[in-house]
Amino acid sequence: MSLLATLGLELDRAVLPASGLGWLVDYGKLPLAPAPLAPYEVLGGALEGGLPGGGEPLAGDRKQKKRDQNKSAALRYRQRKRAEGEALEGECQGLGALRERAESVEREIQYVKDLLIEVYKARSQRTRSS
């Protein structure tokens, strides 16, 4: 299909010079809006027939190469996400251990405070009774 036919244009062949260098379009025959293209249709049928103008179809090995590239990209993405998840898991475990250690230190501090309070009470009772 030619570009002119795709755009809905017609040549006035009577006005064409013998050299074929010029052409005339009857502007009264132009469509108001170009016809909408199908989802993957391009002018000249580049995706249908391969090359514009109906050349060779797209090579199967090019499609396979794209599939392989996509497959390896997806694999790298999944590996990266898995590594990020494992890093977050390790960080969570480290934070859990740190929280346990902080709670242990808090309990130890409270024990020492309670011990000091008992010591001060015992001293104050001894000094009062003496």
Automatic annotation (TrEMBL):
Q: Which GO terms describe its molecular function?
A: DNA-binding transcription activator activity, RNA polymerase II-specific; RNA polymerase II transcription regulatory region sequence-specific DNA binding
**Where can this protein be found?**
Nucleus
Q: Name one GO biological process term.
A: regulation of apoptotic process
Domain of life of the source: Eukaryota
Q: Under the cellular component aspect of Gene Ontology, which terms does the record hold? A: nucleus
- Predominant location: nucleus
Keyword annotations for this protein, in alphabetical order, are: DNA-binding, Nucleus, Transcription, Transcription regulation
What PANTHER family is this protein classified in? ACTIVATING TRANSCRIPTION FACTOR ATF 4/5, CYCLIC AMP-DEPENDENT TRANSCRIPTION FACTOR ATF-5
Q: Which family does it belong to?
A: Belongs to the bZIP family.
Protein name as it appears in the record: Cyclic AMP-dependent transcription factor ATF-5
Q: Which organism is it from?
A: Heterocephalus glaber (Naked mole rat)
